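User: Please predict the structure of the protein below. I'd like the answer in structure-token form so I can feed it into my own downstream comparison script.

Assistant: Understood. Taking the following sequence of 81 residues as input:
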Amino acid sequence: VQNGSLQNALDKGTKFSTGILLDLFLNICRGVREIHEKQMAHRDLKPSNIMLSNSSHAVILDFGSMTPDTIRMTTRVEAQR
């Protein structure tokens, strides 16, 4: 994987192995967890706001839309609302 955004890689038609996709997904999930643990919400998570490194590591960017996380969800029904 080349340095650049996930969106750039998708636009170029980059083929990712299953292992790399899983690594990227877990990296993104860990980043979102860190944001949520700080009781914040990113609000603009998309492929162009995810940077990739040669080591297949994902880094979440663009925190300009972040806000305090004021919504508390404890059930699936609440999440679907």
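That's the full token string. The chain has a mean pLDDT of 85.
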